[in-house]
């Protein structure tokens, strides 16, 4: 039943997690030196590096968690015949999304140390999309449970 509402939520979840791969997650601007540090899903680096800057930090953990979450959501859509399996995959996807958010926090903390100023960095759209995906995952799980209850109530009537 690909036309069910939980399938729409799961598709939107997959799109949100895939867009994390392409959008900036966090940035910090130093007005004194006119330098910017940007965190993306693949690296934490200065926007315009100069000699003497530290090497970019690979942040492939964020990209791997986001891509795994998107792939799992797409796989979960096609498990509509086994709703209990869909719910288990939803719990696993919940953990992947929370891991993505946690990795974003961790690497933004590393980015705070690259520029020694008192101003905090700002979280960009790529950070808030996993939160949206988390809500979409919870909504999809709710509707999957509702379908399961409906099927069980129909089995009682037979």
General description of the model:
By secondary structure, this protein is α+β, with helices and mostly antiparallel strands. It has helices spanning 5-20, 60-77, 83-114, 125-157; strands at residues 26-30, 35-39, 43-46, 57-58, 122-123. The protein has one domain (5-153): Up-down Bundle (Butyryl-CoA Dehydrogenase, subunit A, domain 3). The chain has a five-stranded antiparallel β-sheet. Strand 2 (35-39) and strand 3 (43-46) form a beta hairpin. Helix 2 runs antiparallel to helix 3 (83-114). The relative contact order is 0.21.
The CATH architecture: Up-down Bundle
As a percent range, the share of helical residues equals 55-70%
- Main sheet characteristics: 5 strands, antiparallel
Number of strands: 5
User: Can you tell me the overall shape?
Assistant: elongated
Number of helices: 4
Mean pLDDT: 89
How many whole angstroms does the radius of gyration measure? 20 Å
Which segments are poorly predicted (pLDDT under 50) over 5 or more consecutive residues?
none
User: Any idea of the CATH topology?
Assistant: Butyryl-CoA Dehydrogenase, subunit A, domain 3
Percent of residues in beta strands: 5-15%
Structural class: alpha+beta
Q: What is the count of structural domains?
A: 1
The spatial strand order of the largest sheet comes to 4-3-2-1-5
CATH domain class: Mainly Alpha
| Helix/strand order, N-terminal first | HEEEEHHEH
Pfam families: DUF4293 (PF14126)
Transmembrane segments: 57-78, 90-107, 127-144
Protein name: DUF4293 domain-containing protein
Keywords: Membrane, Transmembrane, Transmembrane helix
């Amino acid at each position: 039943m690909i036309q069910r509402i939980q399938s729409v939520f799961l598709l939107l979840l997959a799109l949100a997690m895939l867009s994390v791969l392409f959008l900036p997650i966090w940035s910090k601007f130093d007005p004194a030196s006119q330098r910017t540090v940007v965190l993306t899903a693949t690296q934490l680096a200065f926007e315009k590096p100069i000699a003497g800057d530290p090497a970019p930090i690979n942040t492939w953990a964020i990209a791997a968690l986001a891509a795994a979450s998107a792939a799992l959501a797409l796989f979960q859509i096609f498990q509509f015949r086994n709703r209990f399996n869909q719910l288990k995959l939803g719990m696993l996807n919940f953990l992947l999304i929370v891991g993505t958010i946690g990795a974003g926090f961790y690497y933004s903390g590393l980015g705070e140390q690259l520029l020694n100023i008192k101003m905090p960095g700002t979280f960009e759209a790529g950070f808030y999309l996993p939160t949206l995906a988390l809500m979409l995952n919870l909504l999809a799980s709710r509707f999957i449970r509702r379908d399961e209850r409906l099927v069980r109530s129909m089995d009682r009537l037979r």
